[in-house]
Amino acid sequence: MLGRLVLLAALLCSAQALRVPLKMAAPQTSGNIEAAPPLSETAPKKIALLVEPTPFTHVSGYANRFKEMLKHLQNAGDRVEVVTADDTPEKPIASHGYPIAYTSGFRFPLYNQIVLTFDW
């Protein structure tokens, strides 16, 4: 979204500098809008997710989007394994029926509500 706004601002500045009217074209559609295929149309996939900060004990829009993704993967019948870092005692062992594995991490000093990992 931010990238689109920057591009739009650049176009507006360029058009104004050239004194050329800017016309936004409507998206091209064929008029035949097809419905999305059913989730069961393809074979289930094996998916491994390494996610940080943990969306399971940290409340945010990011966490909501991640949980929504897990819900759709479950509806598609995909097999998912999740790995994340969390040091809170109330961390869950599963979400949407998928197991959650935890790795060690550290509390981010500038925002200590999240735990991050790093490679050596």
Write the layout of secondary structure elements.
Elements: H1 2-18, E1 46-51, H2 61-75, E2 79-85, E3 94-95, E4 98-103, E5 106-107, E6 115-116
Parallel strand pairs: 1-2, 2-4
Antiparallel strand pairs: 3-4, 5-6
Explain how this protein is built.
The protein has helices spanning 2-18, 61-75; strands spanning 46-51, 79-85, 94-95, 98-103, 106-107, 115-116. Strands 1-2-4-3 form a four-stranded mixed sheet, with helices on one face. The protein is an alpha/beta fold. Strand 5 and strand 6 form a beta hairpin.
DSSP strand (E) fraction? 15-25%
The largest sheet, given as strand count, sense and whether it forms a barrel, is: 4 strands, mixed
Question: Helical region count?
Answer: 2
Helix content: 25-40%
Give the strand order of the largest sheet, numbering strands 1, 2, ... along the chain: 1-2-4-3
The count of strands amounts to: 6
Gross morphology:
elongated
In whole angstroms, the N-to-C terminal distance is 34 Å
Give a quick precis of the structure:
The chain is of the alpha/beta class and 120 residues long. The chain is built from 2 helices and 6 strands, in the order H-E-H-E-E-E-E-E.
Keywords:
single chain, 120 residues, alpha/beta, four-stranded mixed sheet, two-stranded antiparallel ribbon, 2 helices, elongated
